[in-house]
Write a structure and sequence with these properties.
globular
Amino acid sequence: MKNGIAKDSSFAHDCYVLQINGRPSSVHQRYEDALRAGLLRKYQSPRDEIKVFEISSTEEAKQDAVLH
């Protein structure tokens, strides 16, 4: 970083995975989107176990969920 300007390669491209009942359901670029999708699913199916995880872009390539 020079003069307060960061290069594109220095940014972490983290994503958020919505996991339902232990299985990845979807991948989101923003935490708010993943949380919103999880809360909607929890409202529809209160007994489901729902979690949101942060992953790096290298881990994202290994996931077979759909990017939102």
